[in-house]
Amino acid sequence: MSAELDSLYQEIILDHYKNPHHKGLRGDPSSAGVAEVHHVNPTCGDEVTLRVHLTDGPEGRIVEDVSYDAVGCSISQASTSVMADLVIGKPVDEAMSVHQTFLELMQGKGQVEPDEEVLEDGIAFAGVAKFPARVKCALLSWMAWKDATAQAQSDSAPTGGVTHD
Amino acid sequence: MSAELDSLYQEIILDHYKNPHHKGLRGDPSSAGVAEVHHVNPTCGDEVTLRVHLTDGPEGRIVEDVSYDAVGCSISQASTSVMADLVIGKPVDEAMSVHQTFLELMQGKGQVEPDEEVLEDGIAFAGVAKFPARVKCALLSWMAWKDATAQAQSDSAPTGGVTHD
Amino acid sequence: MDGLLPDLDVIRKDFPILERTLAGGVPLVYLDSANTSQKPQVVIDTMVDHLERHNANIARAMHQLGAESTEAYEGARDKVAAFLNAPSRNEVVFTKNATEALNLLARTIELGPGDNVVITEMEHHSNIVSWQLACERSGAELRWFGLTDEGELDLADADQLVDENTKVLAFTWVSNMLGTINPVTDLVERARAFGALSVIDASQAAPQLPIDVQAVGCDFLVFTGHKVCGPTGIGVLWGREELLNALPPFHGGGEMIETVTMARSTYAKVPHRFEAGTPPIVEAVGLGCAVDYLGHIGLQAIHAHEQAITAYALEGLQSVPGLRVMGPLDATRRGGAISFELDGVHPHDIAQVLDSRGVAVRAGHHCARPAHARFGVQSSTRMSSYLYTTPAEIDALVEGLHHTRSYFKVG
Amino acid sequence: MDGLLPDLDVIRKDFPILERTLAGGVPLVYLDSANTSQKPQVVIDTMVDHLERHNANIARAMHQLGAESTEAYEGARDKVAAFLNAPSRNEVVFTKNATEALNLLARTIELGPGDNVVITEMEHHSNIVSWQLACERSGAELRWFGLTDEGELDLADADQLVDENTKVLAFTWVSNMLGTINPVTDLVERARAFGALSVIDASQAAPQLPIDVQAVGCDFLVFTGHKVCGPTGIGVLWGREELLNALPPFHGGGEMIETVTMARSTYAKVPHRFEAGTPPIVEAVGLGCAVDYLGHIGLQAIHAHEQAITAYALEGLQSVPGLRVMGPLDATRRGGAISFELDGVHPHDIAQVLDSRGVAVRAGHHCARPAHARFGVQSSTRMSSYLYTTPAEIDALVEGLHHTRSYFKVG
Lengths: 165, 165, 411, 411
Ligand SMILES: Cc1ncc(COP(=O)(O)O)c(C=O)c1O
Ligand SMILES: Cc1ncc(COP(=O)(O)O)c(C=O)c1O
Known about the structure:
CATH architecture of the largest domain in chain C: 3-Layer(aba) Sandwich
Helix content of chain C: 25-40%
Radius of gyration of chain A: 16 Å
Keywords (chains C, D): Pyridoxal phosphate, Transferase
CATH superfamily of the largest domain in chain C: Type I PLP-dependent aspartate aminotransferase-like (Major domain)
Order of helices and strands of chain C: HEHHEHEHEHEHEHEEHEEHHEEHEEHEH
Structural class of chain C: alpha/beta
EC number (chains C, D): 2.8.1.7
Helix content of chain A: 40-55%
Strand content of chain C: 15-25%
Distance between the termini of chain A: 44 Å
Number of strands of chain C: 15
Number of domains of chain A: 1
Largest interface: C-D, 96 and 97 residues
Oligomer: heterotetramer
Radius of gyration of chain C: 22 Å
Largest sheet of chain C: 7 strands, mixed
Number of helices of chain C: 14
CATH architecture of chain A: Alpha-Beta Complex
Shape of chain C: globular
Number of strands of chain A: 3
CATH class of chain A: Alpha Beta
Low-confidence stretches of chain C: none
Shape of chain A: globular
Distance between the termini of chain C: 32 Å
Strand content of chain A: 15-25%
Number of domains of chain C: 2
Mean pLDDT of chain C: 97
Low-confidence stretches of chain A: 157-165
Function (chains C, D): Catalyzes the removal of elemental sulfur and selenium atoms from L-cysteine, L-cystine, L-selenocysteine, and L-selenocystine to produce L-alanine.
Bound molecules: pyridoxal-5'-phosphate
Strand order of the largest sheet of chain A: 1-2-3
Pfam families (chains C, D): Aminotran_5
Domain Aminotransferase class V (chains C, D): 29-397
CATH class of the largest domain in chain C: Alpha Beta
CATH topology of the largest domain in chain C: Aspartate Aminotransferase, domain 2
Largest sheet of chain A: 3 strands, antiparallel
Order of helices and strands of chain A: HHEEEHHHH
Strand order of the largest sheet of chain C: 2-8-7-6-5-3-4
């Protein structure tokens, strides 16, 4: 039984839980390229308020910053921290593809081999995929990020600029 | 199996079914002491329109006449015919007590011994009490009669006269 | 006989109740499947296994039993989605029965004065009264297609009935009284042409026809668990995801919410939006197993079986003097429910005599009073077959009807 | 330990699931009964017998199976009426669950602008959102009793809350989060004094307290089958007969009608008035058996057992450092659901560690978000016992909590 549990609560997860990265809302939510969303897990009440700041880079939109306030379990808190680490500084397209990779890992029922190149600390969540009730915890902030990013994109799309969908 | 069936479909019942007594609405529904009701069996759609005419006798109200139009199965048709035979000409109180006796027979699940003195041809329905689905058929017009009689009583109650309840 | 299910004997063994004998030792001849179907052992066993080994509340529970129960419940949703060929599992909402599914729509689709709702004269009461109530509440007008003497929809005045103010066109796929199979795709297209929502009552179709909501193109479709070899207490509302998510909430309670404060709440998306409270969990699990069972035998094969039995029954019934079948006389154009009248004997009395011989049929208006009124009758006798029905059972019915005539000394 | 059920071992044998082992071979310690109760063998067997031998639709069917099925279904109504000490069996309406029963009332009790509905801050979402929606539809005002720090109703401003414009006072008998047992007769009297209808949510009371609707004097009371050892898919609405008959219809469909024409319909009296469509037949039969089972053991004895276990659990839980129980700390004033916080570990994580040891508890807001908000928390961990719970299971929980603290290196 302990082995199962340890596969869920990897050291990396507990570390991020104790010391979450990028926690605490930053920046001005009303400035251009910034969007803020509030997501909840209806089953357990876990919540995240997440702010995304996009800027225009030479080759498209870039995730300038992600910050958040969140209450939730170790899995959801650690996942938020890891997510922020992974997407900040990446072009939106690339960040979306990391999102997709993480999603596939979570929905793989423990059958998907995690790609450390792409997911870095995120590979620690491979064990979560075997606990269907916890998958939602791990995905809460990733879904919030996707939503906020979509809003920031439509919001800040410079007229005549490139739009992504 | 045939014995069971024969206990339901007594000769008397089939006779009344083929040749119902007092069938066909009579009298003026708007005159004093007359009430008409329409009852249906929601399950099967059987219907009866029943008219009761009460008059004042020396010792209280009397069931002067009962007439009806009805569609339904042999049990409901025969029961209506027998009911009319039984109540016409009786004081309302006495008719109500016949009604009560018939009701008890029907709700007795086949355990109640029918009283021929009171129920006359009505004793033929003793077998019906063993068929729960058919009890409603046998009671349809009796319930209609009770309802109509109650209406005719309140309707025609001579001011200051005796009221029954 | 052509078309019968090849392993009919084996299939019958799946249904424990078919072994029953009734009063007087007569064997059961169950010809009331349009009322409710019998349950195969595998459905019963699956429910028992769930109750004995995996019972827990769903979604809310994080423990192993909760995970198992949730997986079983949500697995049933997948099976039903596959059964209907639904594009998304989210479109499958579990209700209590078909009636609740229809009332859910009638309560949540917005209607107002000037709007109209079109139904048909052959609907089950659940698809009539629900809309009557909706029209009373909203001031919308209720209209309906009449029936031809053959028991088909009278489409002659369709152009007057369905118009640009029509908000809903709701109709049964297969009539539970007349057996008529309606031209569903035509009706759906007519609704779409006027921007109306199409609602199909597939309660009688789901047991016996392959259903493909994408091919039919309807907006909503409902059916009920207990007629497809599943348990009572479970029904299905299918609808296009974006339409369902645009409807206001129906019942308020657990699981349908996103967040709740004392003053106000926000709501989840479908399917949870419409599954307030603890859902019929073991019932959904049973239904999932039932549609799998039907799928395994094959809906095409079941349909062929029903048509063969129906043709045989139509022939047998018409050999009884004074018997009049209501609805189409061509087995290929109808489902397996056959309602009839017999001169001189009331349906109750027919059913009673048949019952004394073990033959179970339904007598009454079958919750389709307007369709009975259309044919000038108060009630009728209805036999209805299913995948376990044999030609010998039809013979027993026909013999029983001859006996009924002699018992009541008619003819 | 005083108060425990004398034959606890024998009772446990009635529940097949209690023999289960979970991942890693650990035995099940089921402490999630306030979420859903486990089912005794006799309930399962009764349902199986019904499905295998007596299955048929009710009321409408005149054949022997129909009569047997109807008798079983209506017999269940008698049993539930006796369970509640209802003056008439007609007052027992079968619904899908407690949530549907509450929504039925919220949809059919007439409300308008100027009226108000009073609930409490400790309600389950089903008794909050249903009335929020009713108030939104009607323009009535929603008010609520707050809670004291001890988790009891704050009756200080009761005189301002309930007034002559109050149409409904709806409250839970026992809180599913705090365990609090509310002063139901006082509340009922307060409602009556102002001519308001009283609605009691007995979902958590029915499993563990003797209920006598005549003694309580309420107007309506609801509970749900799956928490009283019955199956899912069935709930009960009890109401005074004349009040129920005065409510307009809820769902339209089969069985709730008196007569139907295309243009309009008339409706049956209760209970059928509110049982549109094929009801949860086998579920009612299972529920009837379940309340008989509870009655046989005795609700007083079950209540005493729950109180003994609860007292023992409160003691054990408070031995865990950093653990805070929400709700009354006196076992005699509460039901058997105990929600708590543990410093430094989130409820999900607690539940997960406990689950790895076979201990099943619930983590989340238990469909009582406002009550959690009142105590400044998002979620909590809840253990809930029932008549099969042993002191040793409480020990396993407490040990598991100590282990949880060390696993997460707190303290
Ligand atoms: C107090 C209370 N009310 C209502 C409910 C709702 O019951 P159901 O989900 O069975 O409708 C519950 C249980 O979930 C409850 O604990
Ligand atoms: C055509 C049709 N629609 C609706 C229903 C209602 O189904 P349920 O009673 O299960 O809600 C039935 C069966 O009774 C039916 O035959």
